[in-house]
Amino acid sequence: MNYKIQITVLLFLLLGFSSCAAKSNISSLSASNKDVKVQLSCIAFYNLENLFDTINEPNNDEEYLPDGPMKWGSMKYNAKLHNMSYAISQIGLDNSPVGVMILGVSEIENRGVLEDLVKQPSIADRSYQIVHYDSPDRRGVDVGLLYNPRYFTVTNSKSYRLVTPNDTAFRTRDQLMVSGYLQGEKIHVIVNHWPSRYGGEERSRPKRDAAAALTRSIVDSLYKVDPKARIIVMGDLNDDPTNESCAKVLDAKREQDEVKPGGLYNVFWKTLDRGIGSLSYKGQWNLFDQIILSDQLIHGPTTELHLWKSEVFYRNFLIQQDGPYKGSPLRTHAGGVWLNGYSDHLPTLIYLIKELK
Known about the structure:
About 20% of the residues lie in helices and about 30% in strands. It is α+β, with helices and mostly antiparallel strands. The protein has a single domain, classed as Endonuclease/exonuclease/phosphatase (Deoxyribonuclease I, Chain A). α3 (about 75-90) packs across α4 (about 110-120). It starts with 6 loop residues before the first strand and ends with a strand.
């Protein structure tokens, strides 16, 4: 069975593409006098906000147990699985009939919760597979990757641990690197959940800078093997694109034209400039949930995978519609009250396309 998606895009529609579209693609297609066929791939990241099971395990999960502060029993757990799977089922459907092909996730307790998640009726027919490693994080949460095996074939994965020599007791999430073939082209995905701002942004900044340095070292190691590597860095970075960790340590650029060979482009920097974020705190939007691309995914030939456009997945069902948190992401709990929501973060996504001859 041929699982390639072929989408015929009319020229007059292409001329109205978002400014997030890859420039080379727009110029190439604008010169055409005929319909252009492309393959489209949707890739996303989603912080699932404390997706814990109800089983007491040797990690810091006491808050999310039936007798814990959140009274986290089977009813709440099953409702959480239902809500998160529904949200995932909707990501990318505006442009891709098969939805998201690769989804990085964070704030998951273990592999078991992901196994329960992918079995939910709203996404079960996609047969999502899982890449996951246990992390030493003090909160007991990890990162992971879900992927649709019809479109993405995993060839290698590795978990990288952040070690801080000046604070040997520090424990955080590992960084996950997954390599494989997306619709026939090799890519590398690095999933992150950098240290939080607990204790204040300035005080906690060195930990995120250290996490950014680890991510950069993974990127550089991939570039060393293949200078034209297609790399996707994604995750809850607990910083905005403008912060030191992203803009200086990781060195992810705001403008595509600034990205040189071996460099990185921050897809969501200009999105934040427009006042759009992925999480809200006291009415202020931040864009911690970022996707960052290697130069080949923005400057490479249009017959190979390259960026079309990006989006913060803002949908009304994910947003609190009333009360003191109106306008913020509709989370599972707020102020100790169970809201039966989704997450305190919104998903972020990109579309990659390549022209078909």
